[in-house]
Amino acid sequence: MKMFALFILCISVPSAFAATGVDVSAYTSQDSFSCLNQNGYIFGIVRGYCSYGAVDPNVVSNIQNSINGGMQNTDVYLFPCYPCGDPAGQADDLVNAIAGQGYGMVWIDIEVYAWDSDQGNNQNFILTMANELTNQGQSVGIYTSYYNWQSIVGLGWTGVSQYPLWYAHYDDWMSFGDFTPFGGWNTPAIKQYNGDVSYCGAGIDQDYYP
Length: 210
Hints:
CATH class: Alpha Beta
Number of strands: 9
Order of helices and strands: HEHEEHEHEHEHEEE
GO molecular function, one term: lysozyme activity
Pfam families: Glyco_hydro_25
Protein name: Lysozyme
Distance between the termini: 22 Å
Keywords: Signal
InterPro entries: GH (IPR017853), GH25_Enzymes (IPR051595), Glyco_hydro_25 (IPR002053)
Oligomer: single chain
Number of domains: 1
Strand content: 25-35%
């Protein structure tokens, strides 16, 4: 199922057919995903690993509920725990927990939360995690924002720019017209354009790709 990763679809879907999706960080029922799908959302991204350093207990259910609820694509995101150490081990724990579940990509969620004051240490942590996911046969992406990247690793660090970018900017605008290049990315893959929305009985963030 890795071949149906969202990034591949981002390239192959014509701009006239821009799509919206959701990401979730809590248990979300199949009925909620079905309702979201019926209201125009066609992909889901579910949390797979929590910032406190453990696999999300809802990840397998959420993957299944997203797929069975009609989402054309379902990805997973990993919120790293820097103070926990062992970035490769965190990646392995997630991959093992979701093996065989029919998901697409694994996105590494890089946002301000308990990172080291030394940006070089943060860079090495992220690179190690991304490399381990790749070694495990995963399709990898990076979730972040301009300001989070600036704070955590520095705008000029390009160590993971070979992976697609899912960026956050809550301007309620389904367009990449607001995007400012950073980290070696000139073109993003997905935009998280709105957050903390209640819809179809679920708490969602809203996402867009052209």
